[in-house]
Amino acid sequence: MEPPENDVVAFESAEKIILRWDSTASEDAREKMIFAGDRHEIDRYLQAVDEIQRSMEFATLSDDLNKANSAIQIAMARLEDEFRNILIAHTSPMEAESLTDTSNEDYHDYNSEVDSPLTKELEHQESNSSGSYRSTNSIREIDLMPSDAIYDLRCIAERMISAGYLRECIQVYGSVRKSAVDSSFRKLGIEKQSIGDIQRLEWEILETKIRRWIRAAKVCVRILFASEKKLCEQIFEGLGTATDDACFAETIKGPAIQLFNFAEAISISRRSPEKLFKILDLHDALSDLLLDIEIVFDSKSSESIRVQAVEILSRLAEAARGILSEFENAVLREPSKVPVPGGTIHPLTRYVMNYISLISDYKQTMLALIVSKPSTGSRYSSDPNTPDMDLCELESQTPLALHLIWITVILQFNLEGKSKFYKDTSLAHLFVMNNVHYIVEKIKGSPELREMIGDDYLKKLTGKFRQAAINYQRSTWVRVLYCLRDEGLHVKGNFSSGVSKSALRERFKTFNAMFEEVHRTQSTWLIPDTQLREELRISISEKLIPAYRSFLGRFRSHIESGRHPENYIKYSGEDIETAVLDFFEGYQVSQHIRRRSQ
């Protein structure tokens, strides 16, 4: 049966319009774009395509069907070109000039010079940041194309899909929009590098790249990818089953894998203590982005991206736990045997305490990651290379707090071993005192660290450095004060007046020599903490000065009545008191006591 005459006329009219814009047959058609011209001409062409498609449904004769197929192929080729041209012509909003200066680490510097939609969104994100990576309600879609362009693209997509050209439509869309995303990536400083390439970079370079990646990842997920998803929905939503999801996946999947490959490379890289905090930064950033990732990549076609993000987060957490364990072992085994001059604070002590102070700055993250107790020695352990720590006394502490306490325990254990390298026992005690005091002050100086470690353990540490101070005083001053005793000075018989002048002169000479040696030696020793240094000097003076003055008062007359008293009574009580002020300054002094002893 032949179609009605009106249908034949309508088909011929539509075919004529299609053929007039056949770029393979007309130079004029090749040079002009339909959708860049008059709206009336656009609507005529779309109506012609609709008519051809309608006629195909009712065509019964093979000749009619062949003519319709030929026309529709020409139309689809044309619409594909028009689709591509509109997409290319309207990618400029994503070319955000604010992202061009990737050499500048300060995101605000290269973000504040140019006013663009993306710039404003980036500034809004940064201004609402509180210094950590946590935020809420952070997805900020921007319009990537004007509404008239979106309308035209949707009109074309609707006809291509209904004609069975879905794959072609998706491929054109994906290639153009992926190119736009790649351009934004370049300006965000996201490089195309394999996991192996990333792992071969020096850590100092990676630290800078991690900072940039965190900023870039927030922009990509919350703005770039979210806006691309919105554009897909505006053009394709409702045009076939999950067409918008398919177009979004075609556009974003490659760039998203490229983006997350960086974090994956870091998560599986060789572990070392200096990497912990950047790994925690990455973990915090990715953890904060996870909800946004689930929202942006919520379709079945994007499931692999969601899975990749979750797996990377898990590996970063495992890396952080592994690094902490390796750090504990490194502190325990740190092998340096050269004593630090003057018994001052060992570089290991500074490094370890600064390290755990930084850990406390990541308290919330680390509390979530560290869920098991440290593997410690026990009082029943026979291993002499591992300290004891009774976890029963610390049952109320979190696993993270136990790890931090354990680190201070093994640090002290190592320091005790290093103290044995000092030939002077007094200096060994001073070394322990200095270092444990530094541990105490670092804990007190960090509210987060003090809260986690707790005042009970802090009291133990305080008692330990005070005991070291007592041990120092006993080691140094007992033998000096022993010179100021009365025993051995009296001749048998009359106790009140029978003083052996030779024994007394020898006693003064011994005291002078011992004190001068202590003064000469211990003025080069160092107590860096001003308050601790002053407290120890006061403690020394409280024992030494009264004992010396009392001894001088009891026996001065016996020396002064003999020959050359100045050879024996060389120092007044004030001289001794002044000399004590030279102790623990860390350099050889040239004070009054040294001039008089020459």
SSE series: HHHHHHHHHHHHHHHHHHHHHHH
Distance between the termini: 135 Å
Poorly predicted residue ranges: 96-136, 594-598
Beta-strand percent range: under 5%
Helix content: 55-70%
Tell me the overall shape. Answer: rod-shaped
Largest sheet: none
What class would the helix/strand composition place it in? mainly alpha
Tally of helical segments:
23
Q: Kindly state the mean pLDDT as a whole number?
A: 85
Radius of gyration: 41 Å
Number of DSSP E strands = 0
Pfam families: Exo70_C (PF03081), Exo70_N (PF20669)
Organism: Nicotiana benthamiana
Protein name: Exocyst subunit Exo70 family protein
Domain Exocyst complex subunit Exo70 C-terminal: 212-581
Topology:
Elements lengths: L4 H16 L6 H5 L7 H20 L3 H28 L17 H5 L5 H11 L19 H16 L3 H23 L6 H5 L3 H34 L6 H25 L8 H21 L6 H31 L13 H15 L1 H7 L29 H21 L5 H20 L2 H7 L1 H27 L19 H22 L7 H31 L12 H8 L11 H6 L1
Describe this entry's structure for a reader.
By secondary structure, this protein is mainly α. Among the domains are: 341-377 and 387-476, no CATH class; 486-582, Exocyst complex component Exo70 (Monooxygenase, Up-down Bundle), CATH 1.20.1280. Helix content is 68%, strand content 0%. It has helices spanning 5-20, 27-31, 39-58, 62-89, 107-111, 117-127, 147-162, 166-188, 195-199, 203-236, 243-267, 276-296, 303-333, 347-361, 363-369, 399-419, 425-444, 447-453, 455-481, 501-522, 530-560, 573-580, 592-597. The protein is rod-shaped, with a radius of gyration of 41 Å. The termini are far apart. The model is unreliable at 96-136 and 594-598 (pLDDT under 50). Keywords: Exocytosis, Protein transport, Transport.
